[in-house]
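SUBJECT: protein chain
CONTENTS: sequence, structure tokens:
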Amino acid sequence: MPYVEGFVAAVPAENREVYRRHAAEAAVLFKEFGATRMVECWEDDVPDGRLTDFRRAVQAKEGEVVVFSWVEYPSRAVRDAANEKIMTDPRMRAMGEQMPFDGKRMIFGGFEAIVDV
């Protein structure tokens, strides 16, 4: 079963293509450091909830859409090693200086897969 790192972020709607290019560039690094798959998803049907929802989770503002992403790794150990390399890689640092969204409002976490069909 893969280990999954998930991300949710709010991105200005007009930054769709800029975000797509940013994610594609980042995917090269993630795969270089051990990821087996990376998926980026642009909001299409994200309803408002009664108590909580994706928009509230990332404090999305007017004109922003929600992006839902995940990166798959063979194991948590591979993910941990990849994150260490990614955080110190000068290419990622340069990308971080030009992020097309507010990274402070991004939520993320690692998850152990328990069903994969």
Q: What stands out?
A: The chain has one domain: 3-112.
